[in-house]
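Following up on my earlier thread - several people asked me to post the actual chain instead of describing it. Fair enough. Here it is, all 454 residues.
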Amino acid sequence: MHDAVPRRDFLKLAGSAGALLAAGCAPPVAFPAAPARGVSDAKAATGGGQHVVVIGAGAWGGWTAYHLRKRGVRVTLIDQYGPGNSRSTSGDETRGIRSSYGDRATGELWTPWARTAIARWKLFNQEWGPQFRSTFFFETGDVIMRATREPFITKTIELWKANNVTHEVLSGDEARKRWPVIKADDITVAITEPDAGVARCRAATQAVASAAQKLGANLVIGRVRPGPIVNGRMDGVVLDDGTVIRGDSYVFACGPWLRKLFPYMENRARIPIGHALYFGVPVGDTRFTFPNLPSFNFPGVTGWPMLPTDSRGFRVRGAIAPPVAAGAPAPAPQPAGPADPLLQDPDLSPRWTNQDRVDGARRFLAARFPLLANAPLLETRACHYESSVNQNFIVDHVPDTTNAWIAGLGQAEGFKFGPVIGEYIAQRVTGNDGDAKLKKAFALPTEQYERPPG
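Reply from S.P.:
Thanks for posting it. Predicted structure:
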């Protein structure tokens, strides 16, 4: 028998996300899921009375809970702050959903999964959007613009062809004609992925967690620590108030908190902070609003048009470095110093965007979207992501256990893979190792970062 949270305590802890689904609404229409390479069909799986405790209700944890319930598994989903909270990796307002991975060593593995994820995001929109009376995915299309046909462009095209991805290769003149609001005088090549898009990140994360609850998962708001390991098995997780929640298996999908829960992860993961800025578009000018502009990628900078559902603004991410005058030497790299302890703690790190990033984003707008050069800054978002030396995801056992799992290290790309990685995690936890190549690729990395001096 498994320890359950007493009903009185659960009601105190339970999140409110489930209330988003109106009582008595008709069950959602089920759409056939696009098959994911290396992942078995959930129809062939049954939960068999298994109880899985998922720690972390972000993109990966929420989708894992969702897919476990699809497989008939009893699920308790725990999050310390709630799905889509402002400290979480999935706490930004929007995320790009694309498959252009010519710049990644993992591109051959990631590209087909990213393509499946795009199809899955659309299916989630169709199945659950009417229940929430909202839209979570927008098919904006994506364009990558470059001054030269660099290796990223060449390799991405190769991967797209290998995976039969519909795409376009445009000249600079064609790109300028198609999107005249973009200043692209130096661009000689642009590649597009017409069915890529943008998801409303925070809203989607909350919706997935709510959908998992609608399917029968229990959501608990609380902070946990791993329980003891006895004879190779984890024996429960412990809430701050001492409540023990036990299951047959445990999935720690905690993003940057993995370093705090498991000390051996400290030097296997880095948790940089990414910043996104949202600018107001001119009143009455629809050229910078979906569907009139695709998401875009320039060297070091990505962004997309304003989405009309909640009109957060025109999004810019990555711009910070001041321009270097022609012929001037690049600034010398600064030696690494001791890591700021606040920036290494996702509970304490500040999420306020500094003026350098605002100035960098404005320089980018002036250079590429001059009509937005003086656009009002509406809001900024910042979130940790996790990276590793091997540049790949982790789906593997907690060391010295057979029933506890680490699922994380999304490498700043994990959100888009949620609908696929969640199903893969559910498959692994329910006893199907699946594709041996994937199992090896997602093993707990042995490589560690070199420790910074000081």
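Confidence is low (pLDDT under 50) at residues 1-25, 330-338. That should answer part of your original question.
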